[in-house]
Amino acid sequence: MILPPQFFSPGRLAFSVLAAFYPVVSGAERYFNPAFLSADTAGVADLSRFEKGHQSPGVYRVDIWRNNEFIATQDQRFDTSEHAAAQGASGGLSPCFSLSEVKRLGVNVQAFPALATSVQGDCIDLREAIPGAEITFYFSAMRLDINLPQAAMHNRARGDIPPEEWDDGIPAALLNYTFTGSRSSANDSYFLNLQNGLNYGPWRLRNDSAWNSSNGDGNHAHRWKNIASWLQRAIVPLKSELVAGDSNTSNELFDSLGFRGLRLFSADMMYPDSLQGYAPTVRGIARTPAQLTIRQNGFVIYQSYVSAGPFAVTDLNQSSSSGDLDVTVEEKDGSVQEYTVPYATVPLLQREGRIKYDLMAGDYRSGNDQQDSPFFAQGTIIGGLPRGYTVYGGTQIAGRYKAFAAGVGKNLGELGALSFDVTHARSQLTDDSTHQGEALRFMYAKSLSQYDTHIQLLAWHYSTQGFYTLSDVAYRNMEGYEYDENSNGEQVIRDYHNLSNNKKRRLQVNLTHNFADYGSLYISGSQQTYWNHNNANLWFQVGYADAWHGISYSLSWSWSQSPGFSGAEQIAALNVSVPLSAFNPSHNSVYVRFNANRNSNGQNSWQSGIGGTLLEGRNLSYNVNQGSSSTNGYSGSASTHLQAAWGALSMGYNYDKTQHEYNWQLGGGVVAHADGVTFSQPLGDTNVLIKAPGARGVRVENQTGIVTDWRGYAVMPYATVYRYNRIALDTKTMNHNTDVESSVSNVVPTQGALVRANFDTHIGVRALLTVMRGNRPVPFGSLVREITSGVTSMVGEDGQTYLSGLPLRGKLLVQWGEEEPSRCVAPYSLPASSLRQAVTMASARCERKG
């Protein structure tokens, strides 16, 4: 309850404070002397409930902390307690827990007879039920601290959240869309990606599809491709996920493969953060404004436009969870870069006692038209042993292919972690020749925390020429090129295979190092060699970045070469960004940029420009650049990006002496739920629906561009699964007629869920009402409740009562004692203009109740 400045006069406020902190003592009892508040003691309500700092029992919304770990913000029932009465800060209240709430705290209920015999609905006092338990309630902060002996808890890793708190979300239909397009004097190109979904309980039905269209030089091409359709749900007792339909196998023991079938696998995200895995980052350098396309297992999973200079993609869609990434960068001058980013894991280690498994069966599925779809089955298992060891194994079986793998991993402590395994495969290729061979794999990783350095080294050695993968066996021809259409509608080579030149050795290295005050360095590279020729598939990139007095700069260099393609591609780039705040602090959202690059063919280009952010929420960004290249002469570009609650919109314009091009990208989400339809920014795999009825235009903290719509709804995308997600409303952006009981909510979504974060809002007038009873104000300290809305407050000096969220018309129930004569009802009516005022002043007359 917020009280306006005029609620108390300075003199009366001083007496009230003194009365609260220095009550009159009579014998062994302390009480409030009403004479401190008014010479007319009959005009003061019965304040006996506030003696010794007691508060009224009931339900309060509190933050719950268990053993100094935040658990949740929730409504909690409190009763009066003699033990709590001795704690001055508690308001004389003690929490009353139900059996389900005790279980959610992680208590081993069966270890305590008083808890084991409890039934749902009992009021459990943890102090009595668990020896050594300590409960502290800070009423002024609405914080409940619960300290429980470790012996009373289930043996869970720190940060683990019990399944009872996981939320499967609400039934909903979801649509996620991304539409990109470009138009130039030579051709038009469009790309549409749709990700549709239905949620019901723990079930998730998903479809991912894409449409490509190009039109240029008299050629028209349109193609719609289904990337994947699948049904998925969590199997909580097994801490696993079940997938039926199109998906990818894991890449822990074998290469990741697309399939259509069934898969049951251990879900890492159901375990604490310490057991989480690895995700790739796609880096590269664009010489000019370019179109970036990423393929995985033959399907286009990502397409966007990037500016000249280094780029990094860290937000690939969840469906692209495994499989090497084929990257294509189509430059503005017509040149094309192509390279592969290996998607490999760190050493296979598990904690002692944990078993991780992955089982699947289905038809092989890829986006390569030159491959068949044989039926295959795959199973893997990984187990953690004592003393830091991990053992693992698996098999992959098809009609013309059989493979078996086994390996061991070891945590070496200060020396890092490594794993080693061997895979034996028997293959029958498309020419009916049979082969067998072995592949050895070594993986090493080390994080030198004291030096802020992270090293990842992976090596494969195919000891004989007879080793092939299931993907090799699926080819219809021993060798050939895969063709695709570029943005100009032309046939271009996207992939090449030659089964006679099977793999010999593969090496991958990733290193990152932060130099504290001197920037950061990253090095990434891979090499793939073959048995029957000396040409290798090579990719290497190195970069350095630093900042000085707000001025940031980076240097990067990349090198790539692939068999079947002539020559190697090398690019070096320099980027500098200077914020104008370095010269004028008022320009803290504007910066000047410069970048230059040169490739191995002697082509070079440079660009300089200005950019920044606009609008109050800094959700509109812009860039304007001018430059020149050795191939096309002068060039320029302008782009803007808007991140709004309903979606994200990007627009760009590029030109040079030969042509000009417009490009755009529109992305967003649509969620249909029981309360209606809500538009959003591009959805993640797991999302939160914010429900604050009537709270229009309220921002969500720490979320750029997200505000509630005209009904008080919004969607926060990319929630973290099986973890607490804090959703907070920015109360400073609420209008005069909106109040919320608690501006913070915490949810724990399961994989793919749309969970609802509810906020109890009070939409109405903020008013300072003077309530009179006859010719006298109602007693000071009386409790006031609006009968219809339930809004409550307390009477101050001269009958003044501040209430927020009031309806324009209603009745106030005023109570200053426990007996029926100590109550009255005050009808009131406020003008419609009150909704536009910060605080409305009015009066009401209170009549005897009944």
TrEMBL record:
It holds the Pfam family PapC_N. It comes from the Bacteria. It is a multi-pass membrane protein. The keyword Plastid does not apply. It is found in: Cell outer membrane. Residues 768-832 form the PapC-like C-terminal domain. This is Fimbrial biogenesis usher protein. It comes from Kosakonia calanthes.
